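Contributing: when you submit paired examples, paste them exactly as shown. First protein:
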Amino acid sequence: MKLSPEERQQHREMFARMTLKDKLEHIWLYYKMPIFLAIVAVSIVVSGIHRAITQKEPVLYAGFLNVAVGSELETVLSADYLNSRNYDPQKAEILFYRDLYLSNTPSPENHEYAYTSNLKILATVNSKTLDVVLMNREAYDICSGSGYLLDLRELISLEDPRYSPYVAENLVILEDNSIEYNLGEVSEYLVVTESIPNALNLSTLPLFAQAGFSGEVYLGIIANTPRLSECEAYFAFLIE
């Protein structure tokens, strides 16, 4: 109902005579919904501004498969690399996927963990948000057999003395009729493999030899990465 000018003047005079407590109660009683909506709107705006200011852009996505990386090594793999490339650490980052576990024969208590990790790796590969993987031998065998890893001949010269001591080869499945065989559509199981160079064995590098890994540790590049030049720079940084 619209108030007349006289009624509005009466309301103003009445409000002016109220105590501070009564004024606050009056405002809250009649204007709490607009106040609530205003608070929500301001919160959204402030949150958006804060996110825009503080959000970092990943320059590389890296996964740790069956390996635990300590804080010192992780600093080298992230902050030191960003500094070497003159990235602003306030705006750029290397995003890590930690504690991923791959195994063809997981123990019963680790079965769900391995299944979940495999799904996460598959999702990140398909969404092109996984570029490099640091892994033990078991994870390396699985990633290679699954066709996840880039043939390094597409990126580096195998004769390059910087890389040649560290290049590792592994089997890649080119053809596999296991589905047809299990369905009874063919009588003979057939698998065709090829050994290709698709990782660097970093185990003897001082940085990794002193990190406390049990067994060999490998670094590979995901074959469909859209950040290939960044991966090449990452390889060079770790080797040199």
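Second protein:
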Amino acid sequence: MEKIKVLFVCDDNSLRSPMAEAWLNHLGQGDFLARSAGFEPGSLNPLAVEVMREVGLDISGHRTRSVFELYTAGELFTYVITLCDPAAAERCPIFPGVTRVANWPMADPTREDIPESEKRQKVRELRDLIRERVEKFIQMTKPETQG
């Protein structure tokens, strides 16, 4: 059986999309192949690495990449899911072969002007929210429910 290919996109591929990629690859039981990218790739956020490590997932080796890099390489995805504000999501290119595009609007708490301890807690909450969304996505799209 062919895996369901999913691309998660956020602004800079440093926090939200790498966490979503890790969750889907971990929870998808081999039925999914998740990748992630950003509009303007930056550096992997150390808080993302830290909070994912707390739940047993190591994303420290994640290399940020551009969504346009994947697009021009001709990569095909069944789903493209953006994890940013709707205005930024409109910048996402149309991928050939994509059957579904979804937006899971989520703010990046590391961009807020708040104490570091509060940012860490908000990133944990974001991690857990992303896991919940990924679990629902799996339930709605796993091969056993396709028919």
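If you have annotations for the second protein, write them as plain sentences, like these:
The first strand starts at residue 4 and ends at 10.
The beta strands are 4-10, 32-38, 79-82, 100-103.
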